[in-house]
Amino acid sequence: MARKGKTFAVLAIIAVSVFALVYFGITLTSNLGKSKTEISAEDATKRLEKLYKDIKVTTAPLVKGQIDLDPVAVGDSLPDISKFTISVEPTTDNFIEIFSSIEKSGTGKDGWLNGVAKDFNDSNTLVDGKPVSVKIRNIASGTAADYIRSGKYVPDAYTPSNELWGEMVKASGVQTELVAKRLIGNVTGVVTNKKKYDELVNKYGSLNVKTITDAIADNELAMGYTDPFASSTGLNFLVTALSTFDSSDLLGDKAVQGFEKFQANVPFIASTTLQMREAAKTGRLDAFVLEYQTYVNTPDLKSGYVFTPFGVRHDSPLYALGNIPKEKLEIIKKFADFVEQAKYQKSGADNGFNGLNDYVAELDPVDGSVLSSAQKLWKEKKDGNTPIAAVFVADVSGSMAGEPLNRLKESLLKGQKYLGKDNSIGFVSYSSDVTVNLPIAKYDTNQQSMFVGAINSLQAAGGTATFDAMVVAMKMLQDQVKVNPEIKPLIFVLSDGETNEGHSLDDIRGLIQTYKIPIYTIGYNANIKALESISIINEAANINADTDDVVYKIGNLLNVQM
Question: Angle at the Cα of 228 (from 172 to 449), degrees rounded to 5?
Fold first, then answer.
């Protein structure tokens, strides 16, 4: 089901500069074969059967629950805006609040705008004879767009990474005025390892999004990109890729057919920066998307990878929002003028901005309604004709009693609205033993009703046999794969991370690696490190659910993966 400007946005708040940590190990891992724990497919089948026979598995009676057929309301899942950090506090009674993208209102090299805003607040700037100031809130562009478009919280001004988000806000009916087209220069691009880059240039003559999409479609390039519901770079890449197939109609048959062929050979879509980092460590990706400001701030990338810009520029436009009072609009304009001063543009350059100023956007402006439709298209076509089968594994041990189990139920009941109806879903719960609450079946209205009923029936008691439950989930999925080898299997584990009964991770690690099943983990009052150790095996994401934005996080995760 489509969503507005999604994606797993809160975890994306992890500073983009985290990429700097990634690349020390890439070359060391790029040619590795099987790990010591990985086993052959034949041995995996035998081991799975043996482990499964050791586990006490019961089947619960199917219970139907009441389902809500209303469309997803984004605003209902968004946490209170206080969840997002104020990076610069106002210093006067007359001030404006600005939502700022994280690459310029974070910390270190990502904190350029904070320094400018603090100087502005110290500058004694006056409007109508009164001193004014600005308040900067550090929030990812896609998440900010969700707040604004849903009406959950509308600031006075908004400076996303690129104009695509501004167009989407405008299309949602929010009054929008572009005050400054550019606060600081930046572009986004595809970062390709040097060896692969040279191979592609020798074949295609040059590297750009057109030749990149051709190379991916021909299975010559293993590239990952980020969720276009949450990531500015991911959204930019999506519409740029569509334009290479038909620039006159991004949603026409020609563009859709080209996208489907291209997407069939994309090995990895990252929900989060952290997830992309873990994938990059494996050395399995030849290329991935990244902003230039991060690229130049990561020495290992500059020495071993080539940056190829694409799409619209990421020049941090500044918008005034809503029916804003004249006095506040004047503050926004004063701030835009203040930012343009040479010393602040130079400090931006010192932080990696204002590079590639000669790059001219290769994509014409895209209407916000077209962007929303492109996101819906991506949601529908991202898996091509590959059917998905997923098993949700819920911890109902005694340690989950009370608030953890209540949060688990709430997040699943609301998150299940994002499950695509063409997917197949199963449900398992566990304590000391394992219960199959819902066998895998197509997620039609009947299955959805029984999924809701299974969630509502959960009660906490007993020990914690997490890996026994994962064995059962893998057995259910492998039974599906035997019927249809084209199925893409997924597992979602919701737990507190503490295992005290049954098998261990070492007992099943080889199975996870051999079957290559991504296992997404959501921790409730959890040992997050224990859950991360499960997810990283096949580059899946981990969520800490001990926050008031868990429903939003899980909705984003399911929207991308399902």
Answer: 80
